[in-house]
């Protein structure tokens, strides 16, 4: 998929939000439901809400060679990267959609993320298909299978969700990671921790979260993308899902 990661197509927007209300929401969930939603679940939910409000962003350039076009997704199934330990590939990402993201609660999404992190070939059909392609299909046939969703939109919707995915590569410790991804729009976030933050006219110590949006500028321009990023930022900072 390296040809898709052409940085000439991609634009990155970065901001930092006050995560105080998000942490408050998580603490209330611990009291009421005995399980706190993860920050990844919160970002996934905010991404789904943002994509639902902005269907013009929920598009991708798909189709066979010479017949590519702009495809409009109808669902808001947000894909997520889950770290798996594969033979000779420690920490390899396994990407899969969270189906019906908008209909699931934050706790349900958190539980699904936990199940994906621990799944294996015996209990997850997509992971079993993924591993069989890696193990048993030689190049160039494996490359054709992996790239098939770019040629057939129904395969993209089935195996990669909508135009958006969420990734959090900063979990390993870096405050923030910026790169390009093989989805038309990616929401990512950095390490949530206390940092100096300006509140009013004062610098205070606040729990903050760096956030990133990477988008394909062939799908939408900088103005609409900036407004979409502002909505995503507002949803997280206000903790209103």
Q: In one word, what is the shape?
A: globular
Radius of gyration: 18 Å
Structural class: alpha+beta
The fraction of residues in strands falls at: 25-35%
List SSEs in N-to-C order. EHHEEEEHHHHEEEEH
Distance between the termini: 33 Å
Spans of at least 5 consecutive residues with low confidence:
none
> What would the average pLDDT be, to the nearest integer?
89
Q: For the report, how would you describe the main beta sheet?
A: 7 strands, mixed
Tell me roughly what share of residues is in helical segments: 25-40%
- How many E strands? 9
Number of helices: 7
Descriptive report:
- This protein is of the alpha+beta class and 241 residues long.
- It is 37% helix and 28% strand.
- The chain contains 7 helices and 9 strands.
- The chain has helices at residues 20-33, 39-53, 106-118, 125-136, 141-151, 153-160, 222-238, and strands at 10-18, 59-62, 69-72, 78-86, 89-98, 164-167, 185-189, 193-199, 202-216.
- Strands 1, 4, 5, 6, 7, 8 and 9 form a 7-stranded mixed beta sheet that branches. Strands 2-3 form a two-stranded antiparallel sheet.
- A hairpin with a 2-residue loop joins strand 8 and strand 9 (202-216).
- Helix 2 (39-53) packs across helix 3, helix 2 crosses helix 7 and helix 5 (141-151) crosses helix 6.
- It is globular and about 60 Å long.
- The mean pLDDT is 89.
